[in-house]
Write a structure and sequence with these properties.
11 helices, Nucleotidyltransferase, domain 5, tRNA N6-adenosine threonylcarbamoyltransferase, acyltransferase, TsaD, five-stranded mixed β-sheet, tRNA N(6)-L-threonylcarbamoyladenine synthase activity, binds 5'-O-[(R)-(carboxyoxy)(hydroxy)phosphoryl]adenosine, single chain, binds zinc ion, about 45% helix, alpha/beta, about 20% strand
Length: about 350
C-alpha cells in the first residue's frame, strides 16, 4: 500500500494559472503561480478573454514546472484535481481541459474541486483542521461565513447581500486612483492614516450573520466627490484608514458573533482579503479577548490569494470520499457549496 498520496492540482478560475503537487493534503511539494495581473491592470479589472489566452499560454508550462519542482513524474501521482467553479467560464475551461487530458493520458482519476473550498483548505496546509469550525471567506467575489462540522461539509450561515469585501476594496481603490487590484495598497495606506471619517458599519447590530458593503462604498464615493466639487483634496491615507476600519469592524464583529453562536473549535480566515493586515490583527486581538479557546488559523500571504496548493489540499478530502468525475465534467461558473 502506497502511504504517500500525491495529487497534481490545477487552478485557473480567474487571473492566476497555478499548478501544484500536494502530499496527503497537507504538504506542498510545489506550487507554481503564474500571475496575469500586469496584463489586466491597464483595464482596471480582469478581462475574461485576456485571462483565457494567458491560461492557454501558461498551463502546460506550469504543469511541467510543478512536476519538476516536486521531483515527481505522472507515475508517482494518485489523482489530478481541478477547480471547476466558481469563476470565469473561459478561464475554468482551460484548466479543466488540461486536467482531463493529463488524467486521461496517465490513467489517473479526476477530482472536481470547488474554488471556495480550496480557499478554506489553504488552512490545512498550515495546521490540521478541527471540527466544528467556522470559516470567514473573503475574496474578490465572495464574503461568506461557512460552518463546517466535518471535512467536505459546508453550511453558509451568512453572506454579503451586495458587494463582496474584495470588490469593495477594488471599487474604492479605483476612486482613489489606485491600480487593480487595490486591496493590498489600501491596506498599506490604511496603516499610515487615521479613521477620521467614521463611515457606516452596515448591519453590524442586526441579528444575523450577513454583510453589506455597497452603502460603505457609496458613502466613500459621496464624500470624495463632494470634496472634489469644493476643490478640496482629502488625505488618501485617512480615507483608506477610515474605509478599512469600517470593513474590519464589521467582519470581525459578525465573525465573533457567529463563533459564539456555534460550538466551534477553530476559526479559519480564507480568500484574497485574508491577506489584509488590519483584518488579521483585528480578528486576532478580538479572538484573544472574546474567544481565547477558539484557535485562529490564517494562511500565510502566498496561500491567501488564488493558488493550486489549496486545491490540492481540498482534493485530498474528495479523494478519500471517492468523489471522482468523468470526462464529461464541465465548468460551473456559479458553483455554490454542494457536491456533484
Ligand atoms: O481570492 P482572490 O485572490 O481572488 C478571488 O477568488 O476573488 O481575492 C482577490 C481579492 C481582490 O479583490 C483584492 O483586492 C483582495 O483580494 N486583496 C486584499 C488584499 N490583498 C488582496 N484586500 C484587502 N487587503 C489586502 N491586503
Ligand atoms: Zn479566489
Amino acid at each position: 500500500m502506497n502511504e504517500t498520496e500525491l495529487i497534481l492540482a490545477i487552478e485557473s478560475s480567474c487571473d492566476e494559472t497555478s499548478v501544484a503537487v500536494v502530499e496527503n493534503g497537507e504538504k506542498i511539494l510545489s506550487n507554481i503561480v503564474a500571475s496575469q495581473i500586469k496584463s489586466h491592470k491597464r483595464f482596471g479589472g480582469v478581462v475574461p478573454e485576456v485571462a483565457s489566452r494567458h491560461h492557454v499560454e501558461q498551463i502546460t508550462i506550469c504543469i511541467e514546472e510543478a512536476l519538476a519542482e516536486a521531483n515527481v513524474t505522472a507515475e508517482d501521482l494518485q489523482a489530478v484535481a481541478v477547480t471547476y467553479g466558481p469563476g470565469l467560464v473561459g478561464a475554468l475551461l482551460i484548466g479543466l481541459s488540461a486536467a482531463k487530458a493529463f488524467a486521461w493520458a496517465n490513467g489517473l482519476p479526476l477530482l472536481p474541486i470547488n474554488h471556495m473550498a480550496g480557499h478554506i483548505y489553504a488552512a490545512r496546509l498550515v495546521a490540521p483542521l478541527e471540527f466544528p469550525l467556522m470559516a470567514l471567506l473573503v475574496s474578490g467575489g465572495h464574503t461568506e461565513l461557512v460552518y463546517m462540522t466535518e471535512d467536505g461539509s459546508y453550511e453558509i450561515i451568512g453572506e454579503t447581500r451586495d458587494d463582496a469585501a474584495g470588490e469593495a476594496y477594488d471599487k474604492v481603490g479605483r476612486v482613489l486612483g489606485l491600480s487593480y487590484p487595490s486591496g493590498k495598497e489600501i491596506d498599506e495606506l490604511a496603516h499610515q492614516g487615521k479613521d477620521i471619517y467614521n463611515f457606516p458599519r452596515a448591519m453590524i447590530k442586526e441579528d444575523n450573520f450577513d454583510f453589506s458593503f455597497s452603502g460603505l462604498k457609496s458613502a466613500f464615493i459621496n464624500l470624495t466627490h463632494n470634496a472634489e466639487q469644493r476643490g478640496e483634496e482629502l488625505d488618501k491615507k485617512d480615507l483608506a484608514a477610515s474605509f478599512q476600519a469600517s470593513v474590519v469592524e464589521v467582519l470581525v464583529t459578525k465573525t465573533i458573533k457567529a463563533c459564539e453562536a456555534y460550538p466551534v473549535k477553530q476559526l479559519v480566515i480564507a480568500g484574497g482579503v485574508a491577506a489584509n493586515r488590519g483584518l488579521r490583527e483585528g480578528m486576532s486581538a478580538a479572538m484573544n479577548v472574546k474567544l481565547p479557546k477558539v484557535k485562529l488559523i490564517v494562511p500565510p500571504l502566498r496561500l491567501c490569494g488564488d493558488n493550486a496548493a489549496m486545491i490540492g489540499a481540498a482534493a485530498h478530502v474528495e479523494l478519500q470520499k471517492h468523489h471522482f468525475a468523468d470526462m464529461s465534467l464541465n465548468a460551473k461558473p456559479s458553483l455554490a457549496f454542494q457536491h456533484i
